[in-house]
Every structure is written in structure tokens, then in C-alpha cells.
Structure to design on (546 residues):
């Protein structure tokens, strides 16, 4: 009698023991879910503009100081970084998952290291990393201090 | 200590093999058993499992055949990662505890033996053969070397099933075709002798077909023959996206000279 | 056949979100119609908001401009499609079978429409002078 041996639904969030791409996929999915939930909450939050200036301004202040602690900028920065990662990685996936900038078919040679996750794909990932760091620094600096670069 | 494998020299160290055991007639659910295995230089994990089977526990079951990485039988999860047991050197793992599990995402028959029916069923579902308008051909279909190079690397698949075990989508989605079937679908669509793109389209473009791949690259990462199924799947996605706008036309190879069979000339 | 069309739209809306999203962040910082380009401008050390890019009058000014209002509407459309199609993909990987497919598709469609209508109400009411 055979039994089930599925790795299960959590397997998308098990990026250990595989390469960089698996980590990027797990992070892409995580940021996607976080941003999706944030979208729903944000639509309800911004609808408060119709309740007039006093309500709006007090809601804005309470989101900056939830429970009296100044963690508003931290939450905003996390959402901002999630959006930047998801967007840039999504751009890389849009390019690569439609057959562009992929290596041409080759004959595998020992030690059989796959070229689709190296090569130009690796260059795109490095560019993604650099752009994300630059935009992330500019954005988080602005959120915390209001200083524009 | 006596020599386990002749010609391999002295025992370098002793490691512990923690092997997943499951006997369908005795156990309710799988558990782990530990065995102490003396390691000589050059011993593979398959050698270790056979040592256990010969000397410590005759009831251990595993699949193996060629012991040289070409039959695709001995796929297992060794220390958390999918590998062929005959191609994994124990000393290269650099650990004193070797955890051996059967491949995930397949049904389990016994111990380390998975039921590969899912792999073969998905492979059959993409019609892995040349499809032409005629049933029997009386001459060969012509193919130039550069036309073969477009898909030659994907013909090296040994159907070991490691990619399906590694794929995160396969972990959650029962109906997903899997990287092996999708790469073979591309191998046939890209073959200039084939004319079966439209026949395979429904299966590939379905809710559990090519679009449930999210390029995590784990399949290409673990493939022991370097087949790079992720590359085939991304090529296939490019073909399917282009097909939304301009219907994909396959080349369809010309036929050579019709030949008489020897029997007819007698 | 339909799945490749849905996924093509997923990639397309993703690209559009990148473009519109950049504008959204720019409108909160560089392009905001205030002199003091900070998110929250408080009165001294209090928690009283008197200016900044998240202040009522700043936000209202942006939303009542036709160009930005229309852009936010387009932004909402592509966002709702991309997010709920994404949720549908994640959920249909967890639950298979024809019944599960139907439940997931219709639930995501209904929630997507609710979010879209509720968000559009904010934008349209502000653009037509209400609030």
C-alpha cells in the first residue's frame, strides 16, 4: 500500500539547499502576498479622504504613531522595500520568462552546471541588486528624514 | 577492519547514516533508523546503502542499477538535497551524519523506493513522440545538424525524477505536469520533424501546465545530467506567449527518398 | 489557450504598475505641491499635523487634478487585476479539482470587484468635486 509523500504547501517557502533562484522565488511570493494584503488595507485607508480634513489628518497621525510608538516609518519602509524588490524581480522575470535574454541551447558538459540560472540571468540579478540598494536607500532615507536626493 | 570494497584502501572514518524506513506491512508511518557505516575513500552513498543492506539490515529497500549515473534509478534526498546516490561521494558531503530520504512529491512504496507513476503519467500526457499527419512513414524525415542542436540538450533526460521532487510547485500542486514533462514537450515541439504543437497546446496551456512554473530554477539546479529543464520551460513560455498574437508555425521536415524495404526487392 | 492570455496580462499589468507606482511615489515626494517635501510636518514637538505631502490639502490637490486622478484610476485597475490574479495562482496551486477552481476564481473575482468599486468611488467623488 503506497502512502503519500508530498513535500506540502510550505515547500515554496523552503529555499534552503537550493540555489539563489529559489530564494528569489520565495521572497517574490512573500512580498507579493504582503503587498496584496497591503493593497486591500490601503484602499480602505485612503477612502477616509472623503470624511474631511480633521478625520483625515488624525488618521494620518495615528498611522505614523500606532499605539503611541513612532513605528509608522518602519512599516512604510518595509512596504516600500517589498514593492521595490517585487517590481524589479518581476521585471527580470518578465524578460526571462518570455524567452528573452536566455542562453542558446548548449551541450551539457561535466560538472553539468545549468546555464539558465547563470549567465545573463546572473547579470540581471546583479543589476537588480544594485538598483534595489540604490532606490531602497533613497526611499528609506526620504521616509525617515524627508531628505530628498 | 576488513575491506568493504576491494581496491579502495583503508577506512577513513565512520559516519552515521540516518535512513528513512517505512514498511507498509508493519509501520503506520515512516520513521528514521541509524546505522554506522565505515567509509573508504571513493565510497558513494549508494555503496553505503548497500553496505547497510549486506551487513547491518537486510530489510532495507532501495532502487539502484547501473551505479554510474546513467540509469536514473537511485534518486534520493541526501542531506536535504536531491541527488543520485551513486554520484554522491560520502566524503565530499563533509558531514558525519548522512540523512537519506526517498524523493518527495511521489507516493512512497517502501523505505527509499518511490512510486514513479506520476512522473510517467505526466510524461505521457504531453505526447512525447513525433506527431505527423501520416501514421506510417515510408521514408526518413530530414534534419540538419543545426536543427538538432536546438533541442539536443533536452534529449539527455534519464527520467530520474529528481527535478519533480525539487520543484516547489510540485510540492503543493497535485496536477502540475512537472519540469520533466514540460521540458520533453519543448523537446518535441522544437524538433523540426514534429507537427504536433496544436495537439499538445491544451495540456501545456492549462491551469496546471507551463504557467505554474515560476522559474525557481531548482529543477536545473539538481539535474544530474545538466539537462536544464528550466531553460526548456522558459523557451516554451516564450513560444506560448508569441502564440497569443501570431500562431506558431512548426517547420515540418521534408522527407527523404522513399526506400523500398529489402523484402520487396526479393 | 486562455491561461497564456491571462498570464500575458499579468506581465503587462506588472510593467504598468512599475510605471504608475513610480509616479505614485514621486507624487508623495519630489512632485508634491508643497514647499516642505516631507511626509509628515508636525507643529513643533506635538503630534499635530500642519503640512507635508500626506496633509489633507496636499493630497486633495493631487486627487482633484484630472491628470493624476485618471492616472490613479488606471493604477487601481492594473493593480486589482495583478494582485487578484496572483492570489488566484497561489491558491489554485494549493487546492486542486474542478470545484476548488470555481470557488477560487469566483471568490477572487468578487473581492477584486469590491476593491475596485470602493477605490474608484474615492477617486471619482474627489474628481467630481465632492468630499
Amino acid at each position: 500500500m503506497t502512502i503519500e509523500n508530498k513535500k506540502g504547501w510550505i515547500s515554496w517557502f523552503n529555499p534552503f539547499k537550493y540555489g539563489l533562484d529559489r530564494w528569489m522565488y520565495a521572497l517574490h511570493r512573500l512580498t507579493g502576498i504582503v503587498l496584496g494584503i497591503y493593497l486591500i488595507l490601503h484602499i480602505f485607508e485612503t477612502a477616509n479622504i472623503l470624511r474631511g480634513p480633521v478625520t483625515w489628518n488624525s488618521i494620518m497621525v495615528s498611522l505614523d504613531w500606532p499605539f503611541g510608538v513612532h513605528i509608522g516609518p518602519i512599516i512604510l519602509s518595509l512596504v516600500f522595500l517589498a514593492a521595490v524588490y517585487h517590481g524589479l524581480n518581476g521585471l527580470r522575470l518578465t524578460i526571462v520568462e518570455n524567452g528573452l535574454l536566455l542562453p542558446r541551447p548548449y551541450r551539457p558538459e561535466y560538472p553539468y552546471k545549468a546555464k539558465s540560472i547563470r549567465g545573463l540571468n546572473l547579470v540581471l540579478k546583479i543589476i537588480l541588486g544594485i538598483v534595489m540598494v540604490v532606490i531602497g536607500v533613497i526611499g528609506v532615507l526620504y521616509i525617515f528624514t524627508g531628505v530628498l536626493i | 577492519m576488513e575491506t568493504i570494497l576491494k581496491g579502495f584502501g583503508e577506512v577513513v572514518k565512520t559516519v552515521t547514516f540516518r535512513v528513512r524506513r517505512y514498511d507498509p506491512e508493519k509501520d503506520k508511518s515512516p520513521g528514521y533508523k541509524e546505522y554506522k557505516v565505515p567509509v573508504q575513500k571513493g565510497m558513494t552513498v549508494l555503496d553505503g546503502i548497500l553496505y547497510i543492506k549486506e551487513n547491518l539490515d537486510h530489510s532495507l529497500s532501495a532502487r539502484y542499477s547501473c551505479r554510474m549515473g546513467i540509469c536514473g534509478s537511485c534518486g534520493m534526498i541526501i542531506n536535504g538535497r536531491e541527488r543520485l546516490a551513486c554520484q554522491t561521494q560520502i566524503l565530499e558531503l563533509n558531514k558525519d551524519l548522512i540523512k537519506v530520504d526517498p524523493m518527495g512529491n511521489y507516493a512512497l512504496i517502501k523505505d527509499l523506493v518511490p512510486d514513479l507513476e506520476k512522473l510517467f503519467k505526466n510524461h505521457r500526457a504531453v505526447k512525447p513522440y513525433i506527431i505527423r499527419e501520416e501514421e506510417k512513414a515510408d521514408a526518413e524525415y530530414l534534419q540538419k545538424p543545426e536543427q538538432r542542436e536546438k533541442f539536443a540538450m533536452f534529449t539527455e533526460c534519464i527520467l530520474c525524477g529528481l527535478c519533480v521532487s525539487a520543484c516547489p510547485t510540485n510540492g503543493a500542486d497535485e496536477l502540475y505536469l512537472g519540469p520533466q514533462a514540460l521540458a520533453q514537450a519543448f523537446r518535441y515541439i522544437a524538433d523540426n520533424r514534429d507537427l504536433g504543437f496544436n495537439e499538445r497546446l491544451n495540456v501545456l496551456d492549462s491551469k496546471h501546465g507551463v504557467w505554474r512554473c515560476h522559474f525557481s530554477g531548482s529543477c536545473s539546479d539538481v539535474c544530474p545530467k545538466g539537462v536544464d529543464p528550466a531553460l526548456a520551460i522558459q523557451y516554451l513560455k516564450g513560444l506560448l506567449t508569441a502564440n497569443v498574437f501570431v500562431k506558431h508555425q512548426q517547420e515540418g521536415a521534408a522527407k527523404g527518398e522513399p526506400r523500398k524495404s529489402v523484402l520487396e526487392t526479393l | 489557450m486562455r491561461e497564456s492570455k491571462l498570464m500575458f496580462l499579468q506581465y503587462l499589468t506588472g510593467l504598468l504598475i512599475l510605471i504608475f507606482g513610480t509616479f505614485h511615489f514621486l507624487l508623495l515626494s519630489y512632485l508634491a505641491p508643497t514647499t516642505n517635501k516631507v511626509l509628515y510636518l508636525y507643529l513643533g514637538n506635538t503630534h499635530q499635523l500642519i503640512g507635508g505631502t500626506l496633509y489633507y490639502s496636499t493630497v486633495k490637490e493631487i486627487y482633484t487634478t484630472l491628470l493624476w486622478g485618471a492616472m490613479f484610476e488606471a493604477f487601481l485597475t492594473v493593480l486589482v487585476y495583478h494582485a487578484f490574479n496572483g492570489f488566484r495562482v497561489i491558491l489554485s496551486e494549493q487546492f486542486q479539482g474542478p470545484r476548488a477552481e470555481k470557488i477560487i476564481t469566483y471568490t477572487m473575482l468578487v473581492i477584486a470587484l469590491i476593491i475596485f468599486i470602493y477605490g474608484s468611488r474615492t477617486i471619482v467623488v474627489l474628481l467630481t468635486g465632492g468630499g
The beta strands of chain B are 11-21, 31-40, 75-78, 81-84, 97-102, 107-110, 113-115. Chain B has a mean pLDDT of 90.
